[in-house]
Design brief:
Elements (H helix, E strand, L loop, with lengths): L1 E3 L2 E7 L1 H18 L5 E7 L3 H9 L5 E12 L2 E10 L9 E9 L3 H11 L5 E9 L12 E5 L5 E2 L15 E4 L10
Parallel strand pairs: 3-4, 3-6, 6-7, 7-8
Antiparallel strand pairs: 1-2, 2-10, 4-5, 9-10
Helix pairs in contact: 1-2
Length: 184
C-alpha cells in the first residue's frame, strides 16, 4: 500500500503485467499496420510511460508527436477539455494511432479524434492502456486495449493524483475499490 496526498492506494496491476500487455499491444499494432507509415500521437501527460514502452516495441516506419490535454482535477473528470499544446505535424493522408493512458467517459478522446479528423488522415486508431467500459459514453472506442478496469481511481505508470504518483512502475487503485473486472 502507498499513500499520496492523504489517500491510500493498493497495488492493482504489477509492472510485469503492464509490460506483458504493452508487448502484446505492440505486436498487434505491428501486424495491423505492416508496411504502412504510421504517426503515433501520445496524449500527455499521463501516457508518456505507456507511449515510451509501446513505441520501443513498434517495428514500423513511424514518427511520434505529442498533444497535451487536461481534463482531470484531483480524482474527478472536470468535464472541461483544454488543449494546452497542439499538434505541430501535418497528418493529412497518414495512418494515426493515438496513445492514451486511460479512457473513461471518452470525452477527451472525442475531442482529440474530431480535432484530428479536420486534417483528413487516412485512418485514426486508438490505443489505451486502461479502459473503463462502464464509464464510457464516447463516440470513438479504442481498438487496442490493455486492461478493462472498474470505475475506481488509479495512479502510477504515468497516471497521477494532482501530479503525484506518475513515477510508480506499477498501477495502484484507491483503497477500498472494487477488484479488477476481467482483463482484455
Amino acid at each position: 500500500m502507498i499513500e499520496i496526498l492523504n489517500k491510500s492506494f493498493e497495488k492493482y496491476i504489477s509492472v510485469e503485467e503492464i509490460q506483458e500487455k504493452v508487448a502484446l499491444l505492440a505486436q498487434e499494432i505491428n501486424t495491423d499496420f505492416s508496411e504502412k507509415e504510421v504517426e503515433f500521437i501520445s496524449i500527455l501527460d499521463g501516457s508518456f510511460m505507456f507511449a515510451s514502452d509501446l513505441f520501443k516495441k513498434i517495428n514500423l516506419q513511424t514518427t511520434i508527436s505529442f498533444l497535451k490535454i487536461k481534463s482531470y482535477e484531483a480524482t474527478e473528470s472536470s468535464g472541461k477539455i483544454n488543449e494546452l499544446i497542439g499538434l505541430q505535424s501535418k497528418i493529412t493522408g497518414k495512418h494515426i494511432v493515438i496513445i492514451e493512458d486511460i479512457i473513461d467517459t471518452g470525452a477527451t478522446m472525442d475531442y482529440v479524434v474530431e480535432t484530428l479528423q479536420k486534417q483528413q488522415p487516412t485512418s485514426i486508431s486508438i490505443a489505451t492502456l486502461m479502459f473503463k467500459p462502464n464509464a464510457f459514453k464516447g463516440n470513438y472506442s479504442p481498438k487496442y486495449i490493455g486492461f478493462n478496469i472498474s470505475n475506481e481511481f488509479i495512479v502510477g505508470y504515468g497516471m497521477d493524483f494532482d501530479g503525484y504518483g506518475r513515477n510508480l512502475e506499477s498501477i495502484y487503485q484507491i483503497k477500498g475499490s472494487d477488484p479488477k473486472i476481467p482483463l482484455c
